[in-house]
Amino acid sequence: MMKKFLISLSFLFLFLFHSSAKTLAQSSPAQAPSVAQSPSQNTAQTPAQSPAQSVVQAPSQAPAEIPLVQAPPRKAKPAATNVTKILEKAGNFGVFIRILKNTQVINQIENQLNTSNSLTILAPTNGAFSGLKAGTLNSLTTEQKVQLVQYHILPSFISLSNFQTLSNPVRTQASNTDEYPLNIITQGNWVNISTGLVNTSISGTVYADNQLAIYKVDRVLLPLGIFAPKPKPKAPAPAPTLAKPAKDSSASSLSSSSSSSSTVDSPPVALDASSAHGLILTSNGMVSSTGLAVILAVFSVGLV
Question: Compositional bias (Polar residues) spans (predicted)?
Answer without folding.
Answer: 42-57
